[in-house]
C-alpha cells in the first residue's frame, strides 16, 4: 500500500467512454489498497478549441492582461476533466473529490501561459486520502499569490503530476500516455529500437530536450529535483490487466544510479532536424567575441544550442552555433546589420539542412572511448561531421540532414541498442 | 456617470461574433463615462453539453459528492464566457479583467446545484473600476466557506447580476435578454399586448411566478430586497443605437411606488395551465381539517397553490386546492390511501383540464371594485369561475382551460391594457 499519482493525457480523457476506462483503472489501484491522486489533462482538442475562440476575438497576443484571460479560459478544460473523472470514479463505487489548481492550492508565479509551480499545499489532499477518497487534481494550472489563475504551458499537466507527487512524497508517479515507454531511439527510424525498462532522469532530460515527445522536459527536471520516481507507461493496455504487470510496465525514470544502469554505456540515440547552423568566419580572436555575437542573439530572445569556436589562426577565428530553424533568417539578418560591422568581417555562412544526432548515456561518465566509437561508426558510413559538442552524458554531432536516419541506425547498431537489456 | 451592471444571456454569448457585439455595446457604455460590471451567462448550449457528459457517466444524481462535481463541471461554462468577453473588450481597446465567482468572491451556502448567495466582497471590483477597468464576473456560481464551487441553479446568472448590483450599489442593473421587456400579457395570446415601461417588483414577482420566463424569480426577490433598479431589455437591438435610447428601452422594475404606478390599477394578465384541481367533499367542518389534508400533501413534497374551503353545511364542508399537473395522480392516490379514511369520506373529485388566470396590479391595493370588474368581464363571455383566490396585488380565478385565451383577451380589454400608457 502506497501513495500513487496517476497522470492521464488528453487522448485518455477524450470521451466519456475513455474516461470510464480511466476510472476503472484507477479503481483497480485503489482497491489494491493504494492511496490514489489522479491528474488528468483536458479532453483532447478542448484546449485548442478554447484558444481558437480567443484567437477569433483577438488575433494579437501580447499584453499581460490578455495572457491572464487566456489562462482563465484554457484552465476550464482541465476543470471539466476533473469533474467528469470524479463523477466516473463515484459511478465505480469509489469516494472521489476533484480540485482545481486554486483549491489545492497549487501556487505558481504570475507568468501567465508559462507559469512555474512554487509550492503545493498538501493538507486538504492528505485529509481526503486519509478519509479513503480518491483525489482528482487539475493539471496544467495553478494560482498566483493574488488569486489569478495561471497555466503552465503546453504539456504542463506532466509537470503538475510530478509536482503533486513531490509534494505528497508519493511512492511513484505514473504518466499514462499514448506511447508505452521510452525507447532507445525513435522506432519509426529504427524498427529494432527497444523499450528501456529504466532510464536515469539525466538521460531522460537529454532525450526530452532532443524533441522526444514522451514527457514535458520541465516535468523531468522537477522529478530530478525532488527525486520523484516517474514511470511512463501505456494508457492503451486494457484497464483490467493484473496490477503487478501494469506496475512494472513502461519505463521507470530514476534518480538513483544503480548497478544495472552503470552497465549500459549508451542508453539511446536522440536526434532532431529543427536546427540551423550559422558560422561567422575570420573574426578577431580576442576576449569578448562570444559575448559580442551571442549577446546580441540572446537580446533578440533567440535560443542558441550548440556553440563551437575553432582554434585561432593568424589572430583570426571562426565561430559557429546552431539556432532553431524558425529563427535562422532573423539571426542572420541581425548579425549582418548589427554585429558583423563592429567585428570587421562580413563573412557569414549558414546551413538549414543540418541535423543533430546524439548518443545519450549516464554510463559515459566512467567510460573512455565512447565518442571515438561514435565517430568511427559515422565514418564507416561515410558521414561527415560538421560540429561536435560533448557533455558528461551526451555526445552530439551536427551532420547533413540527409544522413540523419542512416546515422541513427548506424549508432543504434554500434552501441548494441538492438540487443536485449542485460 | 454611474456604476452600471449589465447581464447578458446565453444567446447573446452564443458565438464569437455575438460576444464581439456584446463587447461593442459595453464599450459604448464605458466610453459614455459609466463604470461597468458585466455578468455573462455560459454560451448557449454549453451547460447542457457539460451536464450531458456527466449524465453519460452517472445516470443517478443523488449524493452530495456528485452534486459537488456537477457544480465543478457546470461552472466552467461561465468561466469560458468571462474570459472570452474580457478578451473581446480588450480587443475593443478597453482595459478589462474577468473573475470567476470564487475570485470575487461571491460567497454562497453549500447547497450544490441550488446554492444561495450570502455575500459578495466588493473590494477587488471597486479597485478595478477605480483603475478604469471593465470588470467581467461569472454568473450562476459562487464559492462556499470551505472553498467548494457552487452553482445557483438554472437562470442563476440573473440572480448573480442583481446580487453584484446590490453589493456594488449600482445605479441600475440591465438584463439583456431575447425579449424586449415585460408585457401586459403574452403577445402570442393577445396580439395587442403592450410592453410596460415600468412595473413594480411585487407585480413582477407575481408575473414571474406565473411562468413568465423573462426573469428568474429569485433575481426579482433579490432586487426587491436590496432595492436594485432592474431593467429588462432586448439584446437584439443594434449595439450602436444611441445610449440614451437604450437606457430608456425595455421595462424598468422598480421598488418605489411612484405616482405613475398608482394610476395603473391593473398592470398585466398572467396565466398558466400547469395546475390541476382536487376537491375533497363532505369532510367534517372542525379544526385541523386543512392541516390533516395539506399536511400530508406537504410531507410528500407536493407544492399547493390555490386553496379554498367552502362554507360549512350540516357540519360538513368541501375543501379544494390546486397542485402542479405532474403531481396530480400522486396527490389523489395519497389522499385516497392515507387521508380520506381518517376523515370519514371517500368523496374526491379532480380536474386536470383547468387553468389559472390572474390580474396583477399594485394599484389594486387602493382601488375597490377591481375583482368584480374581473368577474363581470368573464361572465359576459360566459366563462364559469371554479375557484377564486385573492391577494393584495393579484386576483386569480381557476376556470376551464378551454376558455383560457378567451379569458385573457377579455380581461386585457376590460382593463384597457391595449391602450397606450398614460
Q: Quick summary of this structure?
A:
The structure is a homodimer of 422-residue chains. Chain A is α/β, with parallel strands linked by helices and 422 residues long. Chain A has 13 helices and 20 strands.
Number of continuous helical runs of chain A: 13
At the third CATH level, what is the topology name of the largest domain in chain A? Carbamate kinase
As an assembly, this protein is homodimer
Question: Into which percent range does the helicity of residues of chain A fall?
Answer: 25-40%
The CATH class of the largest domain in chain A turns out to be Alpha Beta
Question: Could you report the average pLDDT of chain A, rounded to the nearest whole number?
Answer: 90
Strand order in the sheet with the most strands of chain A: 3-6-2-1-9-11-12-10
Strand content of chain A: 25-35%
Pair with the biggest interface: A-B, 40 and 41 residues
GO molecular function (chains A, B): aspartate kinase activity; ATP binding
Keywords (chains A, B): Amino-acid biosynthesis, ATP-binding, Kinase, Lysine biosynthesis, Nucleotide-binding, Transferase
Pfam families (chains A, B): AA_kinase (PF00696), ACT (PF01842), ACT_9 (PF22468)
Catalytic activity (chains A, B): L-aspartate + ATP = 4-phospho-L-aspartate + ADP
Amino acid at each position: 500500500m502506497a501513495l500513487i499519482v496517476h497522470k492521464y493525457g488528453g487522448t485518455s480523457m477524450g470521451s466519456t467512454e475513455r474516461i470510464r476506462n480511466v476510472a476503472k483503472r484507477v479503481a483497480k489501484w485503489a482497491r489494491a489498497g493504494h492511496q490514489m491522486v489522479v491528474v488528468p489533462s483536458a479532453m483532447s482538442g478542448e484546449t485548442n478549441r478554447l484558444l481558437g475562440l480567443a484567437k477569433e476575438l483577438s488575433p494579437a497576443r501580447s499584453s499581460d492582461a490578455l495572457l491572464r484571460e487566456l489562462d482563465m479560459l484554457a484552465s476550464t478544460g482541465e476543470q471539466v476533466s476533473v469533474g467528469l473523472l470524479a463523477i466516473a470514479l463515484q459511478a465505480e463505487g469509489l469516494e472521489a473529490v476533484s480540485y482545481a489548481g486554486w483549491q489545492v492550492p497549487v501556487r505558481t508565479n504570475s507568468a501567465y501561459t508559462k507559469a512555474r509551480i512554487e509550492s503545493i499545499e498538501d493538507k486538504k489532499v492528505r485529509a481526503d486520502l486519509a478519509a479513503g477518497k480518491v483525489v482528482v487534481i487539475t493539471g496544467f494550472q495553478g494560482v498566483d499569490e493574488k488569486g489569478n489563475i495561471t497555466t503552465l504551458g503546453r504539456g504542463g499537466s506532466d509537470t503538475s503530476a510530478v509536482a503533486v507527487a513531490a509534494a505528497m512524497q508519493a511512492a511513484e508517479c505514473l504518466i499514462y500516455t499514448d506511447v508505452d515507454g521510452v525507447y532507445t531511439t525513435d522506432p519509426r527510424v529504427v524498427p529494432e529500437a527497444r523499450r528501456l525498462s529504466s532510464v536515469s532522469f539525466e538521460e531522460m532530460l537529454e532525450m526530452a530536450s532532443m524533441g522526444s515527445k514522451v514527457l514535458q522536459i520541465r516535468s523531468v527536471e522537477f522529478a530530478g529535483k525532488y527525486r520523484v520516481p516517474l514511470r511512463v507507461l501505456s494508457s492503451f493496455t486494457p484497464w483490467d490487466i493484473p496490477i503487478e504487470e501494469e506496475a512494472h510496465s513502461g519505463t521507470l525514470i530514476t534518480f538513483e544510479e544503480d548497478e544495472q544502469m552503470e552497465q549500459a554505456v549508451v542508453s539511446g540515440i536522440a536526434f532532431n532536424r529543427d536546427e540551423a547552423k550559422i558560422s561567422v568566419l575570420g573574426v578577431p580572436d580576442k576576449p569578448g567575441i562570444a559575448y559580442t555575437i551571442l549577446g546580441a542573439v540572446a537580446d533578440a530572445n533567440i535560443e542558441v544550442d550548440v556553440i563551437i569556436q575553432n582554434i585561432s589562426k593568424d589572430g583570426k577565428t571562426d565561430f559557429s552555433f546552431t539556432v532553431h530553424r524558425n529563427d535562422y533568417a532573423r539571426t542572420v539578418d541581425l548579425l549582418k546589420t548589427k554585429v558583423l560591422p563592429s567585428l570587421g568581417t562580413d563573412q557569414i555562412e549558414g546551413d538549414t539542412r543540418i541535423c543533430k544526432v546524439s548518443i545519450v548515456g549516464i554510463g559515459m561518465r566512467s567510460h573512455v572511448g565512447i565518442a571515438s566509437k561514435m565517430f568511427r561508426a559515422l565514418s564507416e558510413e561515410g558521414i561527415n561531421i560538421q560540429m561536435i559538442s560533448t557533455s558528461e552524458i551526451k555526445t552530439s554531432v551536427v551532420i547533413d540532414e540527409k544522413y540523419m536516419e542512416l546515422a541513427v541506425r548506424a549508432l543504434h547498431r554500434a552501441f548494441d541498442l538492438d540487443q536485449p537489456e542485460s
